[in-house]
Every structure is written in structure tokens, then in C-alpha cells.
Input
Amino acid sequence: MSKPNDLVLGTLDLLLLKILALQPLHGWAVGLRLRSMSGDVLQVSEGSLYPALHKLEQEGWIQAEWKQTENNRRAKFYALTRLGKKQLETETANWERLSAAISQVIRLTEA
Amino acid sequence: MRIEHWWFTTPLRLRSLFRRRRVEQELDEELQFHLDHLIDEGTAAGLSPAQARRRALLAMGGIEQRKEEVRDTRRVGWLTDFLADLRFAVRGLRRAPALSAFVVLTLSVGIGWTAASFAGLDALVFRPYPVRKSSEIVALVSTTHDNLYGPFSYREYLDIRDHVKSYAGVIAHTTTAPAGFSSRAGAAARVKNAMLVSGNFFAVLGVEPQVGRAFRTDEDAVPRRDAVAVLAPDFWKHELGADPAVVGRKILLNGHEFTVVGVAPDSFPGLQLFQLPDVYVPLAMAPFFSTDPQKRFLEDRDDRELLVKGRLRRDSTLQQARNEMAALARDFAREYPELDGGRAATVRTQVEMRTRGDRMEWKFMVIANVLALAVLLVACTNVAGLLLSRARTRTREIAIRLALGSGRSRLVRLLLTESLVLALLGGLGGIVNGALGVRFFDSFQIPSDLPSVPPFQMDLRVLAVCLGVAAVSALVCGLAPALQSTRPDLITGLKASDVDPPGRKRLWGRNALVVAQVAASLMLLTACFLMARAFRQSTLQTTGFARDHLLMVRLDPRLVQYDATQTKQFYDRLTARAREAPGVLGVALSYHPPLALESLEAVSFVPDGFQMPRDRETLTSATDTVDAGFFDTMEIPILRGRGFLASDTAEQPRVAVVNEQLAKHYWPNSDAVGKRFRLGHRGGTPVEIVGVARSIKYMAPTEKPMDFLYMPLAQQPRARMALLLHTSGDPLQLAAPVRDIVRTLDANMPLVGVRTYEDLYRYHTVEGPGVAVHMIGTMGGVGVLLAMAGLYGLVSYNVTRRTRELGIRMAIGAGRQAVLRLVIGKGLTLVMTGVAIGLVLSFAIERVMNTALFNSGHVDFGVYLLLVPAMVLVTMLAAYVPALRASRIAPTLALRYD
Output
């Protein structure tokens, strides 16, 4: 699977969950949101977004629904499930623990 | 959490599986939607539509690859792939039907054999007691230096029952001597298997009667008081017509009236394996079933006959129970030093009881299982060889698949699926073979007085093992070829068909295997033929006595508590009456009739004036106690002196008749008649030899002559005897009159066994050895089959490998015959080597069999003249098929082959 190089490994799931927690979106919009929210720092290659989304769907964390877009086209909208909310919480907690730990280590070496 | 997870994901998986097209469509649409947006973005940035499209596609990084990645996330790939592989495998196998059939056959033999021998082992060792929570049931055993699995006496059982704390209940049971059963007074008694059980037997085992009730605990409290019986399910059905109103009915056991209180359920045929009880009675009724008036089972602390079992309490461990028993045994030894001193006690599990060191059956089964696994392994090796030769022809296909980007593990999976299909078909065949094998085990009936019930069966456990073994063999025989043929050296694979360099080493193992198979199967077949021949000859040999028109009826007056006088009186009257019956030419009594399938008794004696060998105090000989009519009735000629007479009574000096062999053995140069010996020891009763009888066959028709000593019944009274009737017509016609005679003498006296000598003889010469002949013959046949499979695989592998070379040979003028010879020659070398080794082994085994089993000392060349060419022919057939294929290679095709 082609991995986005500039994303910390394994954090794509967390980001996608977070974005979808705010509002249901289709794949294209998820990509745009990811880019805009992180100020273009975090970029996902166009292709690898869908395998990631489908993986989350198969895990039961998000669920999809076909709806009309504002341009009147059918698109697959993803929304967080109950399970997904729990997962987001765990992953957020994990991330916070990890990043805190890492920054601590970095500060130590500087000192 | 887990359940919620499944709740969300299961519908998705099912959707991916069953609405695949819809899911794919949605995926297309979703990606198209994204692509359109990307293109729009491009055109908005000023690119031409074509450029924008190109950029967009590049950015997506290959739509098909993305789709494949998405499909991988669905987690059903393994299943859809597997189904696709399955279809592919079946198609491939159908294209080579002969090869597939052969592989399936080979595997089914191996798996079937394994299944049948596992069924045996399961029945003898693993199958749990047919009771509730059988793992809690343990056996309590009394141990001595010699016996680690000994029974307890009734008194000991009572003490154990009242003192131990580790159990929810402690039961005791024992099988009585064959008991005479009659459904009503006056009807002739027949022998049945009665089991004495403690009152809590059914309750502790958790066995609920299907009719009526089980015993109450107080029903074995007072000796001889509660004459109640619980019937075994089969007995109820066959003897009482499954009478639903059986409760309250009276039946007679050894002449005593018992009231039926219940019927055990069908699920509980008994705790033992071979001998199933017909009737259960309380332990306190034991005096009615005793055959020894000297013994007081309920009182004597050293009359140890009870098998004691307990249901462990849930909160106690085996170790606790063991410690407790050991402590209790020490208490016993302290309290009763002369009866229980030197004895210990322990607790054993079911498997421990069934794998006791002094039993042979389960060891045979273990050996059979090991043998079966060896056969299966060889079968798998051969199948691997066949698959390898097939995979070889597909080198190119596989190389192309690899080149197109298929993963190696994916390809291995594809090839393994193929062998899995073969193995599963083989497994199904194996189930059939195994069932046949189990039937064969079951068909083997030893002629005994009470029918033994073979415990072997093809149950779910065995079926599961069958399929498990099939799956494992798929892996064993498929993995090596799959790994070897997917080795990713693409260049050579694409370029040439003969990938590996012509090496001898690689095939050495397989060559050796073929040679070994040919040799072993030749040896087994020889052994089989020799045995069959020897037993056929033995049917032509004389037994030394008149065995046709001879009926044998076994009786045991102890069952109805006769004392010595009553017994003598009974036999005197019986023989007198029987002699008068129409169609009876002669009547005799014998304690141990010849060929009766019991171990012979031995007697020690010291001849007067005989120079004893230095290291021995006494001589021994097999012996029988017979009445005066024996030698005439059995038509055993008295060579010198006389047989027994009615005048040889207990008051007269002791006499004996010896056989020719014994006479020649100890008095080679003088007449044995008139010689004297002491019975038992130097100072024993003096006995005079009054006659020499011709030697006959005593144990088996194939035995060598043995020493034998006859003693008169009048001087050596016995209770259990066999009545022998020499008849003018069909001996079985006399069975009913004899039964009537016995009934008029005493209606409660059971006929323990009624059988003609022809039956016994047939068992000795046809049925018994038939089992051995069958078994060895089957092994030999399987050996041939395996050898064929091995050879076929090997030769066709060679042919495929050498296709190009053969093509060149043919192109420059080699004829088809030459190619045929070339290919087959190698196979012939192997077969001949195998035959040579097999012949050496066969000669060896023939010598062993001749000296150990049979009496004939000559080598039978006829067998070899028949077997060796047949063996060569059959195995060469396996080589011929691929060789023929090689000779039909069109040179033009062969040269383009790579």
C-alpha cells in the first residue's frame, strides 16, 4: 500500500476519524479538509485516501451513505459510528501520550 | 466491545461476499467522483482537458492498483481467492483424471488405514466412559509389588467408601462367573453376563434408567435380602422384547428369583469394553453367583474381586485423592497386617487404567497407529512426487504468473489448494476405507461362551481425525512441490523446462523409497501367501481325533451351588441319560477339551527312578481330566496298555494315561506303561501310567507335538466340565435333546456353551488365521500400490525432465521402442533391486515362519514363481504409462518444448 510519506506512520486513521467526527464528508472533501486544516503540511496522495477510508469502514468505525452533493452528484459520504467515536478517543489519548513523551525526550537532549 | 465490533462488521463482510458486483460498482463510482474533481481542478488551473486527465490519473497512482488495495481492506479476500483457487484446482485435476484418481486412491489408503487404527486406539484408550462428566470418574486400585492395578475386596470397599473425602461417591462393580438366566421357572437356563454393583452405582455415574428406577443405596446393605435387578438395554430388547411393563417382572438368575426394577439407558451399554453386562444385581446378592463355596466374598477381606471407581469432587484434585488413598492403605496395613500388609493403594485415571503396562491390546493398537502413520507418510511422499512431476510441466505457467507480478505466497496457496482438494477426496475415500477396516475389526469374533462385543466404531471422533489427517497430508504432500516450483528464478523458468541440473542426488531418496516399497511389499505378500498356504495345509492335516459329528456342551454346577457329591451325581446321571439319547454314539467328559481356545493347565510330576536333569526338581506337562468314555468317543487310539475304566474310582490307586510324545520323551527305550510317577513333587501321590495314547492337536492345528498327561475324572474331581457327544447325524440336532436332559436333571443348570467341533476347527483353520492372512495381505497390497505410485511419479518426472533430450534422440533417429526402453530401463533397475532385496527378506521370513509357526521346513518355490513376475509386471505397468507418453513425443514439439 502506498503510504503517505509525510504523515507520521499510523496517524492517518486518527486524522480521518477526527475530520469525520466534525461532519460527514465524501472522499474528495476529506482530502481537501485534511490539506486545509493542517495548513498544507499534511498531504495525502490522492490514491491512498480511499484504501484508508475503506479500511476504517470495514473496521466498523465509519459508515458510508450515498447522498447528493451540492452540485447534485451522487457521492459516498462517510460518518463516524459509535465504535468510531470510541476508537477516536483511544487513538487521541494514545497520540497525546506518545507526542508528550516524544517532546519530553527531545527537550531532554537539548538541555 | 467484541460483539459490538461484529455487529458492525459482519453485514459489511457479507455484503462484500454476496453483493460483490454492487460493491465494485460503488467503488468505481466513488473513485470516478474523485477523479472528476481532480480533472475539474486541473482545468480550472488552466490545463487542457486531456492534460488535466493525465495529471489526475498520475496523481491517483493507478486506479486499478487502488481498487486492489481497497479490495484488500475488505477482509474476505482469502475466501474469494480460495473459492477461485478451488475452481481452478478442480478444473486442473479434471484435466488429468488418471493421475488425480491415482493420487486420491493412494491417499485414501493411507488415510483410511490411519482412521481405522485410530478407531481402534480410541476405543481401547481414549473413548470416555459413557456417563455424565466422565472425566471426574477415576479408578481406585489396590497395588502390590506385582500388580499395580489390583481390585479390592468387599470389606475393603466398605472401608474406603466410608472413609474417603475426595469423592462425590465411590462405587464398586465386578462381573460374576457366567450366570444362568431363565425368564420363568422351568425354562432352560441360558448363560448371561451378570454384573454385581454397589447400590449407588447408577446414581454416582449419573446414569438415569430409561424404564423404572436404579438401585437404592440400601439395596446392597443386607446380604441376600434384596433380589432386585436392573437390565442392560440390549438384554431388555433381545430377551424380553423391550417389554415396557418389565418393572416388577420376575426373572431367574442361577435359579434364584429376582425382581426387575429398571432398565439402563441405551447410552449406557456398560463400563467395560468387550464384555457387556446383561443384568445388574446388587453386590449383597454375590453369594448367589459364587462358583466357589469355600469363598465368602462378602466377609473375606482378602477376596479381592471388586473394581472400585469414584467420582472426584469438584474441589478435590487427583493428587489429593492419591494421597488420601495411600494414607488409607497404610491404615489398612496397620489394622490388618496379615491381610493388607505389603499392599498400597492409589487412584488412576481412565486413560491410565486403559494403558496399563500388562495389557497387550492397546500396545498393538499403538504399533498399528505408528505403522499407519508410516504408510501415510510414504503415501504422502509418493503423492508429493506425483505432484512434483506435474508441477514440472507447469514451470512455464508458473514463471509467467510470477513475471506478471503474482506473489509467491499467493501462488503457493494456489498450488496447495490443489493438493487440498486431492487430500479431501482422499479423506473421503479414507473414511470409506476406514469404515471397511473397522468393520473388519468388528467381524473378528472369538468363539467364547459369552459373546464379546467389539468396541470399534466409526464415530464422529474418528471422522474428525480422518479430515484432520487429510488436511495435514495436503500440507505434507503439497508444500514441497509448491515451494520448489515457485522458486523465483524467472529467467531459467521462462527459458527452459528442465530447470534443475541433471543431478542424481536429488532423486536418490525417491529411488530408495521405491526400492524399499517394492522389497517390503514383496516380503509381505510372500508372508501372506505362505501363511495362507500353511493354514490350508493344516486343514488337510489330521488333528488326531474325530472332530466331525462332535458336539461340545459346557457345564458348571458351581453356578447353582452344587457341592462335590451333587456334582459327581449330576455328571453320572447326565452321561447315562445322554448315552441313551437317539443318535448318540459316544459320550465323554473332559475338563479341557482339545482346541477349545483356553490356555492349557500344566501339571508337575516326578517319575520314579528317573534321572532328573540337574537344574530341575520336577517335570511338567500339559494335562486334562477326562472320564472313562473319552478316548473311545474322541476316537483317540490307545497304543499300549489301556484307557481309563469305570473301575478307576477314587478309592483305587491313582492311574494316568500319557501321550506318545511324553512316553517317547521320558522313556525312549522302554515301555511307559507300568511306570510310576509322583504328582506335584518327590513325595506326592504315586500314580501309575496305565496306557499310552496317540498324540493329538491340543491347542492349535499347526502346533508341534507336545507332552500330555490324562487323569481320570473319578480320581481328580472337577466341577466345570465339557460334555462331548459323538453323534451319528448333524451334531447340532442334539443340542435341543441335551438341553432337555439337563433341564430334567436341574432346570436352573445353565448350558454355558454349546458348539460343534467343526465350528471350533473352522475358527482355528479358517477364521482365526484368516484375520492374519487378510491383514498381511492388505499390507502387501498397499505396499504394491504405494510402490506403483512412487514409480509412476518418478518415471513421469524423469520423462518430463528429459522431454527435450528425448526429442533430440528421436529427431536424430531413435525409434519409439528405443525411447520406451530407455525410459523404462531406469524403472526396471529400481524394481529389480527391490525384488532382489525383497527375495532375501522373504527367504528370511519364510525360515522364521517355518521354524516358529509351522511344521513344514521346505522352501516353497511355487510362491516365488508366482509372486515375483506378478510384482515386476504390476510395478512396470506404473513405469510403462509415462514411458509410453515419452515415446509418443513428437520430436518437433519436444524441441520447441522450451
User: Anything to note?
Assistant: The longest helix of chain A spans residues 82-110.
